[in-house]
Design a protein that fits this description.
The complex is a heterodimer.
Chain A (H helix, E strand, L loop, with lengths): L2 H5 L2 H8 L5 E2 H11 L11 H10 L3 E8 L2 E8 L1 H25 L3
Antiparallel strand pairs in A: 1-3, 2-3
Chain B lengths: L3 H5 L6 H11 L4 H24 L4 H12 L2 H29 L1 H5 L13 H27 L11 H28 L6 H28 L1
Helix pairs in contact in B: 2-3, 2-5, 3-4, 5-7, 5-8, 5-9, 7-8, 8-9
Classes of the chains: A alpha+beta, B mainly alpha.
């Protein structure tokens, strides 16, 4: 799959991996890699500006916490983040239905 | 994860060295930069540990963690944009705060109760300051929104940061000059209390906003 097509949905994918639990940056990258089957291939450092942007937009909340003797910045979905994730899921489902409907038949 | 051959061509670099190089490549608000670099350091430590747990030796694990992260040349631009936006947000706040107090100082109960003089020059300056000041307050609120909740619709980047700093620089120069002119035109130049108010509520806050604007421009 074209990497650029995946990267265009990075924001939504970040929100999705944070749906069930707060995570720090590395854990987010790992979750993205696992859930994309390794297809999401981008420099892992690019996630941090995206996280800051999502936080500025009010979709994520972050806090510093101590884990294994290290201070880590952990991110979790805000209420707005949950709403927009639900909206993005619906958008994607509608998109996939339309395109799949056209491409699905010869 | 990177495969061993993929990173082999990269110059070996410890994670601490990488963070130092990234630090040197970035300009921006100290607290925000420190937070970003701390996250980078944590990330690289986690990635190194993961490669170590997968059986790679310490040096290889570090090299692969750094290779996965991206070269400083690849990563620094997006980090710099984050810092530029953070700096512009601070500038917008300072500008808003510097202007929002003005009516309370000059027209409100805290005001010096100094009558406005007759004369076209003062009247024109007064009108310009009122309209201009109102526009700048509105602009700074829009810029604050753009760098915050506005990210929901478009990514506030260096163009917003540049616009914020240029607007702030122009506004602070204009307001300092017009404030001083109005003080002198009103005949208040001999009144120490008016000078004190001018310094405390125009010169100092506008200078702070102007300095922040220059720093923001440096981050763009």
């Amino acid at each position: 799959m074209k990497a650029d097509a995946l990267r265009g949905h990075l924001d939504s994918m970040i929100l999705a991996v944070l749906e069930n639990e707060p995570r720090h940056g590395y854990a987010i990258i790992e979750a993205l890699s696992v859930r994309s089957g390794g297809e999401l291939d981008l420099p892992t450092g690019t996630i941090y500006p995206a996280l800051r942007r999502l936080e500025a937009a009010g979709y994520l909340d972050s806090s510093w916490s101590e884990a294994s003797g290290r201070k880590r910045r952990t991110y979790k979905l805000s209420r707005s983040g949950r709403s927009v994730l639900a909206a993005k899921r619906q958008e994607w489902a509608d998109f996939a239905k339309v395109v799949g409907g056209v491409l699905g038949k010869a | 994860m990177t495969s061993a051959p993929a990173y082999a061509s990269m110059k070996s670099m410890t994670t601490a060295t990488y963070v130092r190089h990234l630090d040197a490549a970035l300009v921006g608000p100290r607290r925000v930069k420190r937070g970003l670099l701390r996250e980078v350091g944590d990330h690289l430590e986690d990635a190194t540990e993961a490669y170590g747990a997968a059986g790679y030796d310490a040096d290889s694990a570090q090299d692969m963690a750094v290779a996965d992260f991206g070269t400083v040349e690849e990563i620094a631009p997006s980090f710099q944009t984050t810092l530029a936006v953070a700096s512009s947000r601070r500038t917008a706040w300072l500008l808003f705060a510097a202007l929002a107090i003005q009516p309370f100082i000059w027209d409100g109960p805290l005001g010096p109760n100094h009558p406005d003089p007759d004369g076209a020059a003062y009247a024109i300056l007064n009108a310009l300051v009122e309209v201009g000041g109102g526009l700048v307050i509105a602009t700074s609120l829009v810029l604050l929104a753009a760098t915050g909740i506005g990210n929901r619709w478009f990514a506030a980047g260096r163009r917003v940061a540049r616009f914020t700093s240029i607007t702030a620089l122009a506004a602070t120069v204009f307001l300092k000059v017009s404030g001083l002119s109005m003080l002198l035109l009103s005949g208040g130049g001999t009144e120490p209390i008016l000078w004190l108010l001018f310094v405390a509520f125009i010169l100092v806050p506008m200078s702070m906003a102007g300095a922040s604007a220059r720093r923001t421009l440096a981050t763009c």
